[in-house]
Write a structure and sequence with these properties.
301 residues, alpha+beta, four-stranded antiparallel β-sheet, 17 strands
Amino acid sequence: MVRPVPGLCVARSWRLFGCAAIAAAVGCQQSTNIGPVADAGQAAKIAAAFRSAGGETSSSAAESTGTGWATLKGRFTFLGDPPPMPAYVVNKDEATCAPGGKAPPQEWLKVGDGDGLANVAIYARSVSRVHESAEAPDEPLVFDQKQCVFLTHVAAVVVGQTIEIKNSDDVGHNTNIAEGSNKLNQTIPVGQAVPFVPQKEDASPAAVRCSIHPWMLSYLLARKNGYVSITGPDGSFELANLPAGEEIEIQVWHEASAGVVPEGDVAKEYKWTKKGRFKIKLDEDETRELDLQIPASLFAS
């Protein structure tokens, strides 16, 4: 039995917005009700906070003071009982988007087995050196959509890496990125794929939507290097081959929290800020592992 978490009932309230806002963005009829969806205003506030506290991107290069490489890894766990995710109200292409009358659930808070917190982005804001393993890979990032859902809710890509935007549905989609540094407004025909190559770095993930099916939502984070990790259902992450011997500022992001800050001594030890940032210095060949417990109260407005 799921028990309510203090603050999360409040959090859900700011994820509701009327079709009037959606109509302005995508031209739907004012009478259309697509149900509760992730709050675009909240996401915009988080993105603005990231920019105001450190610039649009991490263009300022860190000073090289160390040698060698090291790894930071760990796990984010959710403290509390997460609420069940409500389904979107699908009102178009129901046979494809809500097969059997079952609409897809929202994904703004996804907790897996062992209380792992999924869809957390953790990345280095600026580094002085980049290991060859963190350079843009040759293989494309596959970004697919099926049953009117983006199959990857939060994706990370290195600037210059190709994204293969696929449409595995039997209805057309329109992939729209209206914020951040890599704008896109591209129709993806049935069963086809369109390449897209981000050219600039973003300070935080940009919302990706479908103008045809406005309940669809995911996030894309473009970085200059591969020092970025997106947690899966178990909440684990790994930043391999970071520059050792020098201080690196790490950013943590989640779509439903203005600042991801863990409980306990780890926040004090690393001087974790309310913006979800901390600094760390690793020794050469070191692998440091962090246990990061994230309280439910952070996901309230």
